[in-house]
User: What shape does this take?
Amino acid sequence: MNKLLLPLFMLAALSLQAQTEDCGNGVDDDADGLVDCADPDCSSASVPTGAFFNTATNGTGGTLPGGSFDNNWDFSTGSITGPYSPAIVMTSYPGSYYPSPWVDCDWISHNSLGTHSVNTDYYYRIQFYLPCTTPCGASYSTPGVFCLNMDFFADNAVTEVYVNGVLQTGLAGIPPPGDPYYHVGFSASGGVSLSLCNDWQPGLNELVIHITSGPGYSGFLAQNSTSAPPVAGDPTILPAYTNTTSCIDGGIVDFDAVSTGGTWTATCGTCIDSVTGIFDPMAAGVGTYTVTYALTVPCPANDTTLITVIDTADATINPVAPVCANAAPI
Assistant: This one.
């Protein structure tokens, strides 16, 4: 028995180590002793690109073939609680369906043709992870920090939207006017454009779209225009220019930093160009000055260094009176 228990224990441990840290569930998922936002994995996790949310995307800039399981979206019939199954890329659909302009987006449904015979409610779900904070240090649980900008089209209508189980209210066009089972939500003018900015969280997130569909066909298309948050700039002044010394007549010093687009200042005032970082020792005069490089977007950050301007040494040889050949050394 002991010989069996040891391998099973080792397999369980390896399984835990292989898991990804969910940054919002209060569990040490990857068994490294660090939970949620205390785990560095939650700081380095990346936000999904906009294309991730497109229905039928193949993840490489195109669409999946008809009849394939969608990589990211699944669906449930009749209940938001499931069970959920992978949505299926439609092999064909009516010509009245809106054609997405994106080459990596197409219609999905509960089967490859989207056919059905009675009024039906479908729930389309996508799940994804968010890190704990943006590069600027803002929590993804703060409203407005992450906004998912989506266009939704459905045969027949998008009637509800849930973010992490929370019904989103006050959304334009949801629910649609009239009978939602016969709305023309599959046309270019019948879709809805939403900016979803509330109820996100670090770790696992879930977006559910409830659509209603009358007899005939049912389909769903989601296309996204969300960009990932900008990467924080690095204001570090390059080592070649840190704590440097320059002669007053030694010519300009061209400061540089890791990231561009910031502003240069110095305690000698106009001795440095605020855009280029060119420092003029002659304009500064003899002394030691603090040089600062500051970034304001996407996150405020700065770095400082010192430059010392020294006077030019006087190498003039002073004249002496004539001396005799047998005089002592001077």
